[in-house]
């Protein structure tokens, strides 16, 4: 399965590089969090979605609405607008008996009036800055989506690979011992929890409490399956989000620091330099210079 997971990840990267497809994968009954290479594709990464999801309640709404999306794509691929105002193609993945998950190709804006109405609701309900929402919406979502037939043609191989991965994973999972199943389930839950809470102050006590395990057991499972530590994984997530916000937004360094979970901007700057070999400001300036020279 390892090679198949790598092929899936490479193909998603290819679609993003060649066609600017912003792809996310959803569903698949807990399978995704068992493959660390696929976990990043479970979350919309465009700057608008990242800003909206700084409010944890909005993130919970996104997860709750996924079942409605699955119900809506019973008849195949469709194009629509999410409750936050982002438009996307949704392609269902089936196993011959029903829908096991779906692939989203997101990040478009063709109906700003409808989106604006949804932004009004978001800003009032979740106390988000309406003008900031509009600005990021305008800057980072694309006006013209590709034709549906083209999207269907290019993404269908990805759906087929995900179907194969799910069926293979399910067969192996069903033959695993109880202990293996438990550790896989706990590790999957930890990954899911960290990806949703990386910008909060996360402690081992909190994770252990969520999983109903001891701290030592959490550390043991994560080291064995993740080949690292919880803190190493959180830092990686934060640096990934920081690089994206530095290149795709005009937020100040202090705002980015706070948004990804660092209360001290100096500590964030030092950590960023250590992880990337360059300061956040220099990283942003370097990116802008490259863009100018294109």
Description:
With 294 residues, the protein is an alpha+beta fold. It has three domains: 2-174, no CATH class; 178-228; 233-293, Orthogonal Bundle (Arc Repressor Mutant, subunit A), CATH 1.10.10. It is 63% helix and 10% strand. It has 14 helices and four strands. β3 and β4 (99-108) form a beta hairpin. α1 packs antiparallel against α7 (148-174), α8 packs across α10 and α11 packs across α14.
In brief:
The protein is α+β, with helices and mostly antiparallel strands. It has helices spanning 2-19, 47-52, 56-64, 66-72, 112-126, 130-140, 148-174, 178-197, 204-211, 215-226, 230-248, 253-259, 265-276, 280-293; strands at residues 22-27, 78-81, 87-94, 99-108.
Topology:
Elements: H1 2-19, E1 22-27, H2 47-52, H3 56-64, H4 66-72, E2 78-81, E3 87-94, E4 99-108, H5 112-126, H6 130-140, H7 148-174, H8 178-197, H9 204-211, H10 215-226, H11 230-248, H12 253-259, H13 265-276, H14 280-293
Antiparallel strand pairs: 1-4, 2-3, 3-4
Helix pairs in contact: 1-7, 8-10, 9-10, 11-14
């Amino acid at each position: 399965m390892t090679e198949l997971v790598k092929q899936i990840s490479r193909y998603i990267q290819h679609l993003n590089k060649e066609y600017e497809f912003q792809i996310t994968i959803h569903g698949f009954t807990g399978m995704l969090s068992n493959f660390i290479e696929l976990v990043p594709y479970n979350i919309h990464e465009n700057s608008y979605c990242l800003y909206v999801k700084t409010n944890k309640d909005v993130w919970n709404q996104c997860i709750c609405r996924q079942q409605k999306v699955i119900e809506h794509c019973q008849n195949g691929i469709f194009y629509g607008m999410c409750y936050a105002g982002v438009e996307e193609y949704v392609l269902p993945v089936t196993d011959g008996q029903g829908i096991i998950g779906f692939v989203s190709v997101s990040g478009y804006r063709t109906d700003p009036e409808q989106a604006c109405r949804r932004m009004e609701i978001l800003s009032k309900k979740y106390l988000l800055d309406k003008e900031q929402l509009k600005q990021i919406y305008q800057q980072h979502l694309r006006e013209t989506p590709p034709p549906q037939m083209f999207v269907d043609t290019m993404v269908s191989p990805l759906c087929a690979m995900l179907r194969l991965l799910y069926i293979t994973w399910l067969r192996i999972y069903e033959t695993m011992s109880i202990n293996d199943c438990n550790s896989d389930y706990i590790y999957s839950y930890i990954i899911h929890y960290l990806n949703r809470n990386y910008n909060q102050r996360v402690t081992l006590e909190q994770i252990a409490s969520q999983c109903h395990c001891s701290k030592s057991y959490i550390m043991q499972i994560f080291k064995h399956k993740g080949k690292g530590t919880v803190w190493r994984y959180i830092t990686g997530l934060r640096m990934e989000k920081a690089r994206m916000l530095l290149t795709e937004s005009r937020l100040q360094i202090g705002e980015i620091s706070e948004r990804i979970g660092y209360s001290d901007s100096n500590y964030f700057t030092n950590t960023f330099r250590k992880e990337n070999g360059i300061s956040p400001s220099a990283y942003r300036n370097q990116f802008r210079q490259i863009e100018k020279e294109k």
